[in-house]
């Protein structure tokens, strides 16, 4: 797909990678960009429509879906990243609420519009979906879960013409990684690489130097081959509503 003249929704659009995705979609000529945020947002570009959207709030998700009449590209970007040591169930639940049930709920609400447009879903996952960082195990679990969700949605929605991408993001210089002293890509470069990957039809997008170093190994590896084998089983089944 090309972004020009399309309608895009980005969650977590007020800062970090989400803010950069809004800017890059506008740069590519998007017709309308819905910016999902928890706090009111003012944007200088008239093509941006703010949407109040806490992804853990099902009433807000429903209200947001009712305000949008057409959608080509949904980007599930909102996320949290907190240190834990797996001793606190509440930390697991909080990560799953935002990073897993958030994208699940938003996707379900916008699926009728995406089916109608034969649109595209992008889930901003993390490299930690592939290998847990034990400093942030609850985060890693939530990202493994949303990666699995992405793989299943990809297979289940293929018959409706809806494309589903995972972004296996490495370290990016945002509020999330402040205080984490490692080389990081800029949010602007990552947003550009994500939308390049969408436009080029890359199923799994590796948008920064750290993740890009793993792209070839992932794409030609046994886990990807196994995903395709499993997807073929789902695609052999009739699509249900
Ligand atoms: N930065 C990295 O190194 C990195 C690496 C891999 C993956 N990622 C993923 O990339 C995505 C964006 O991260 P970022 O680095 O841009 O982080 P960030 O700068 O901390 O921004 C997080 C965004 O998510 C929003 N958010 C948090 N909880 C929300 C909720 N319940 N409902 C709606 N929005 C919510 C925040 O909104 P508020 O301003 O209201 O809090 C903010 O807009 C996340 O999914 C993250 O896991 C980031």
Task: Describe the protein's architecture and organization.
- This protein is an alpha/beta fold.
- The protein has seven helices and seven strands.
- It has helices at 16-27, 58-67, 89-117, 137-157, 187-199, 209-219, 222-235, and strands at residues 7-11, 32-37, 48-52, 73-76, 120-124, 163-167, 204-205.
- Strands 3-2-1-4-5-6-7 form a seven-stranded parallel sheet, sandwiched between helices.
- The longest helix is centred in the middle third of the chain and has 29 residues, at 89-117.
- The chain is globular.
- It starts with 6 loop residues before the first strand and ends in a 6-residue tail after the last helix.
- The model has no long low-confidence stretch (mean pLDDT 96).
- Bound molecules: NADP nicotinamide-adenine-dinucleotide phosphate.
- The site of NADP nicotinamide-adenine-dinucleotide phosphate has 28 residues, from helix 1.
- NADP nicotinamide-adenine-dinucleotide phosphate (NAP) is lined by residues 11-12, 14-18, 38-39, 53-56, 77-81, 98, 124, 126, 169, 171-172, 174-177.
């Amino acid at each position: 797909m090309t972004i020009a003249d399309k309608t895009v929704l980005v969650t977590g659009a007020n800062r970090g990678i989400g803010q950069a995705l809004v800017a890059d979609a506008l740069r590519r000529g998007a017709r309308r960009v819905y910016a999902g945020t928890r706090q009111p947002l003012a944007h200088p570009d008239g093509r941006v429509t703010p949407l109040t959207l806490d992804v853990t709030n099902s009433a807000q998700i429903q209200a947001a879906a009712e305000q949008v009449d057409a959608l080509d590209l949904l980007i599930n970007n909102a996320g949290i990243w907190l240190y834990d040591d797996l001793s606190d169930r509440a930390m697991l639940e909080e990560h799953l609420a935002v990073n897993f049930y958030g994208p699940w709920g938003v996707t379900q609400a916008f699926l009728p519009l995406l089916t109608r447009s034969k649109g595209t879903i992008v889930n901003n996952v993390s490299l930690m979906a592939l290998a847990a960082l034990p400093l942030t195990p609850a985060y890693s679990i939530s990202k493994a879960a949303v990666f699995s969700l992405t793989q299943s949605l990809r297979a289940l929605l293929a018959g409706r013409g809806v494309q589903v991408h995972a972004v296996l993001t490495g370290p990016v210089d945002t509020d999330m990684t402040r205080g984490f002293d490692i080389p990081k890509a800029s949010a602007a470069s990552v947003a550009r690489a994500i939308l390049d990957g969408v436009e080029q039809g890359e199923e799994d997008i590796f948008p920064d130097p750290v993740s890009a170093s793993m792209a070839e190994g992932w794409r030609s590896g046994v886990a990807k081959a196994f995903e395709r084998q499993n997807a073929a089983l789902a695609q052999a089944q009739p699509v249900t509503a």
